[in-house]
Write a structure and sequence with these properties.
Layout: H1 8-18, H2 31-34, H3 37-45, H4 48-54, E1 56-59, E2 62-66, H5 70-90, E3 105-106, H6 113-131, E4 142-150, E5 158-161, E6 167-174, E7 177-179, E8 182-187, E9 202-205, E10 211-216, E11 219-223, E12 226-229, E13 231-239, H7 241-247, H8 258-278
Antiparallel strand pairs: 1-2, 2-10, 3-4, 4-13, 5-11, 6-10, 6-13, 7-12, 8-9, 8-11
Helix pairs in contact: 3-4
The site of 2-oxoglutaric acid has 9 residues, from strand 11 and strand 13.
Protein name: Fe2OG dioxygenase domain-containing protein
Keywords: Dioxygenase, Iron, Metal-binding, Oxidoreductase, Vitamin C
InterPro entries: Oxoglu/Fe-dep_dioxygenase_dom, Pro_4_hyd_alph
């Protein structure tokens, strides 16, 4: 197939009508086949304590928990491989997940948009409502879902960045690899995104297959080089249109930005000092 300039919708239509699905069961959520029992139980309970029972807050604002069954991880990797094979054979021009990756595939582009919407609405939003309310966690209503592939023959690492999301779900699918640790360096608003990291904000994490990491999109992070093997993971950038609208009119982001919090405390300290001086 010749490389044509297609709109996103045209591209999706072309993919949907041409690519043969490998595992049809991946395209609709079947909780008991996708998730581990502890995760399903916590979602069914839908209480803060229930979530805390399965989620470890490994560093402030970074939650880690067991989420996906090994068989689901394998099927999803095979599905992406199948799609990539078709892309390669037909020389079809696809969009990569973001400007930082040369490899990886947008799951929404080959039929998984509805399934991922449900994953966000029924599973990630209830958790985000509890742990990330100040960044629109309870009103997540859009997503960008993709798979990334790292290794010597793929992308090697990922630079320091913030995501175009309010809440990000990052699940390791496999395969076997060494290296590829995630590093986190504190939450910042747009204005403070390049400010210094405080020592208590430094957090490095080694991902394991089936395990999920959930964090605010504004939590600065990156991924170190995958030294051997292939590291493949599922990313769901969850967005809230309500939060994005509100953000336009806000100046102070001290509800989540550590630097805004520091500035606010400093302003309060100065006004208390000024009052004392007047007295
Ligand atoms: O490689 C990873 O696990 C991190 C990916 C990531 O941060 C992103 O895609 O936004
Ligand atoms: Fe990211």
């Amino acid at each position: 197939m010749l490389a044509k300039c297609l709109s996103k919708d045209q591209m999706r239509m072309e993919i949907l009508s041409s690519v043969q699905r490998l595992h049809a069961e991946l395209y609709t959520i079947q909780a008991e086949h996708f998730f581990v029992p502890s995760f399903i139980k916590a979602i069914d309970e839908n209480t803060e304590q229930g979530f805390r029972n399965i989620m470890k807050e490994a560093s402030p604002g970074v939650f880690v928990f067991e989420m996906l069954q090994p068989r689901f991880c394998e099927m999803l990797m095979a599905e992406v491989e199948n799609f990539e094979k078709w892309v390669h054979e037909t020389k079809f021009r696809i969009m990569r997940p973001n400007t930082m990756n040369k490899y990886g595939a947008v799951l929404d582009d080959f039929g998984m948009e509805t399934m991922l919407d449900k994953l966000m609405e029924d599973f990630i939003r209830p958790i985000s409502k509890v742990f990330f309310p100040e960044v629109g966690g309870s009103t997540l209503d859009a997503h960008h879902g993709f798979v990334l592939e790292y290794g010597m023959d793929r992308d090697v690492d990922l630079g320091f960045h913030v995501d175009d999301s309010e809440v990000t779900l990052n699940v390791c699918l496999g395969k076997q690899f060494s290296g590829g640790e995630l590093f986190f360096r504190g939450v910042r608003c747009d204005k403070h995104v390049n400010t210094e990291t405080q020592s208590e904000e430094v957090f490095d994490y080694a991902h394991l297959p089936g395990r999920a990491v959930l964090h605010r999109g504004r939590h600065r992070h990156g991924a170190r080089a995958t030294i051997s093997g292939n590291r493949i993971n599922l990313l769901l950038w969850c967005r809230s249109s309500v939060f994005r609208e509100l953000r336009k009119y806000q100046k102070d982001f001290s509800s989540y930005c550590t630097e805004c919090q520091r500035e606010r405390k400093e302003r309060q300290r100065q006004s208390v000092a000024a009052i004392k001086l007047v007295r």
